[in-house]
Design a protein that fits this description.
Keywords: Cell projection, Cilium, Flagellum. The chain has helices at about 45-65, 100-105, and strands at about 1-5, 70-75, 80-85, 90-95. With about 110 residues, the protein is α+β, with helices and mostly antiparallel strands.
């Protein structure tokens, strides 16, 4: 399984009408960022993180046993996430929509 998704960062989008706010438009509340200080790093991740890693590992092993793998990429033209089901030699078998990924990750079938 590979993950080739571009990093997501802050948006530089600004609307053309920002200079003249409408009386009907509501501005979002200001985001207050709190500084977090950690003086002790835990010996291991929290239990829920370990459980999620275990579930992902089981899904990965199940796919490998079926001779399949998932390949994640960002479409160059649209910028949308693409998920391909490939055989272990890299041959494209089919594409699945991102909405189906959670079904597969939680034990659903690709068929």
């Amino acid at each position: 399984m590979s993950l080739d998704v571009a990093p997501v960062g802050p948006s530089s989008f600004s609307a053309a009408n920002d200079a003249q706010p409408s009386s009907r438009a509501q501005r979002p509340a200001a985001v207050v960022r709190q500084q977090v200080e950690v003086d002790v790093i835990p010996e291991s991740p929290p239990r829920e993180v370990l459980d999620a890693i275990d579930a992902a590992s089981r899904a990965y092993q199940k796919l490998r046993a079926q001779g399949r793998e998932l390949h994640f990429a960002q479409d160059a033209d649209s910028g949308r996430l693409t998920i391909e089901v490939r055989d272990l030699d890299g041959k494209l078998l089919r594409m699945i929509p991102p909405s189906r990924l959670l079904d597969v990750a939680t034990g659903g079938t690709l068929d």
